[in-house]
Design goal:
This protein is mainly α. The chain has helices at residues 2-22, 26-34, 40-61, 68-89, 95-119, 128-145, 149-156, 163-188, 195-218, 221-241. The chain has one domain. The mean pLDDT is 83.
């Protein structure tokens, strides 16, 4: 078991390094790889707590760039209600089914991003009601997997927001919602058994940020994104068929 947690530490280092390079995706990457051999309920609280450590600093540094109108009228209401719905619905799902649903989400997201990059596709504006509906769906996936990013990015891509405000707003959303999930995990008792793991993995975040910043300056970000999405695509397929591999 100790070896598995060491391996999970390597996954965390990889995931947060890639987030430092590209700006997003740490929980999606770490959860999709970690859940192949560790249970959801063990690793999800760890990843949520670690994400708070990283996003709290970024949210404070970029607080002036946050799009408050979009945040307060569209993102937070839908994400908050959706996260609560996903959190309370999770106990009614079998772990194997959750893995497959998560795998489907990962495959859709990775395939969509690879297709967009290949075709240089640009999103078009959507009606406000559709953006709010997709945002609520993103909240549900965040409550289930702490991975609302794929759907939320898809929802917000159809609005008029520049890159700087988009990044600052997303970071604040993850900090807020993951703080909410952390409180929920403390209340339901899932956080306490893994607090020692969180403390053990925190130094990896420092290494990941420094390594990610170095790689961001020295390598082609486009190549990194192709590698990430290809890895996620393969991992999603494995999650979908995991019940048939036993």
């Amino acid at each position: 078991m100790e070896l598995l947690w060491i391996l999970f530490g390597c996954i965390i280092l990889l995931a947060y390094t890639l987030e430092a390079v590209t700006g997003s995706g740490s929980i999606v990457i770490a959860l999709s790889l970690g859940v192949l051999y560790l249970p959801f309920d063990k690793i999800l609280p760890i990843l949520v707590a670690l994400n708070i450590c990283m996003t709290s600093v970024l949210a404070f540094k970029n607080r002036k760039s946050i799009d408050r109108k979009l945040l307060l009228t569209v993102i937070l209401p839908g994400m908050f209600l959706g996260t609560l719905a996903g959190y309370f619905a999770k106990p009614y799902f079998d772990d194997v089914i959750l893995k497959q649903v998560f795998g489907l989400l990962i495959v859709w997201f990775a395939a969509r991003e690879l297709w967009r990059m290949y075709h240089q596709h640009k999103d078009v504006n959507r009606p406000l009601w559709l953006t709010k509906t997709i945002t609520f769906g993103a909240g549900i996936t965040h409550g289930l997997f702490a991975s609302g990013g794929p759907l939320l990015v898809y929802a917000i891509a159809g609005t008029q927001i520049d890159k700087a405000r988009f990044r600052a707003t997303m970071v604040f959303v993850w900090f807020t919602l993951n703080a909410l999930l952390t409180v929920a995990f403390l209340i339901d008792g899932r956080m306490q058994p893994v607090l020692i793991n969180v403390l053990f993995y925190i130094p990896l975040l420092v290494v990941a940020v420094k390594l990610g910043n170095y790689l961001h300056e020295k390598t082609n970000e486009q190549h990194f994104r192709v590698a990430i999405y290809s890895l996620l695509l393969m991992t999603g397929v494995i999650l979908i068929i995991s019940r048939y591999l036993k």
